[in-house]
Design brief:
alpha+beta; seven-stranded antiparallel β-sheet; 3 helices; 7 strands; elongated
Length: 203
């Protein structure tokens, strides 16, 4: 599990999945979302159909550098200084290696707008446009919408409720209706107790 993962309670997760399933049911019945205003220029035929606060994370490597120190001396004090320096360098190196490992890292936060062409994020420092045509794969783990891009490293949009926005995105981008929960199949009626040799009442 990534260290940024949004820890949700079981109730919060069920609420998010239920919202997505209600949207899927509505889309299946013919309901269509209404276009809402957006504070940016859109292309001809483009409309905005959802908005929410979000955090943008990207799968990136970190800075693997660390401060290397040296200490020398003679006698018992010198040995202690040298050993302490070696231990400190090893700890710093291990931390640097962990920091350098690729993982999802927070790069921006702001307001997300979902149109029928893109995810557009009005961040604190910049606008980010994630065009549907550049998205190669997509998924949702209940806390974020994951987008594998063709031109940039993978992106995760941490948004609430993520399953709802993922369902809306897949419908806007691909005319697909996806469900976050697995439909429950009717259960067969319980079998009567076996009778006869070897059965519950057999001899």
């Amino acid at each position: 599990m990534n260290d940024w993962y949004w820890q949700q309670s079981a109730q919060e997760r069920e609420t998010a999945i239920a919202a997505a399933d209600r949207l899927a049911d509505a889309l299946s019945s013919g309901w269509r979302p209404q276009e809402i205003p957006a504070p940016f220029h859109m292309q001809p035929g483009e409309g905005c159909f959802g908005t929410e606060n979000t955090q943008v994370l990207q799968y990136l490597e970190g800075d693997g550098s660390y401060w290397h120190t040296s200490a020398f001396g003679t006698g018992a004090v010198g040995i202690a200084l040298t050993m302490g320096s070696m231990f400190g360098n090893r700890v710093r190196r291990q931390r640097a290696e962990a920091e350098a490992a690729p993982r999802y890292r927070l790069v921006e936060a702001g307001r997300m707008y979902l149109t029928n062409r893109r995810f557009s994020v009005q961040g604190q420092h910049q606008w980010i446009d994630l065009w549907f045509g550049d998205i190669r794969m997509s998924s949702c783990d209940g806390a974020a919408v994951f987008l594998t891009m063709g031109s940039i490293p993978a992106v995760a949009l941490r948004v609430w409720p993520a399953p709802y926005h993922f369902t809306l995105f897949r419908w806007l981008a691909h005319s697909e209706i996806v469900r976050s929960s697995t439909p429950r199949l009717p259960q067969p009626p319980p079998q009567p107790p076996a009778l006869g040799p070897g059965g519950a009442y057999g001899g």
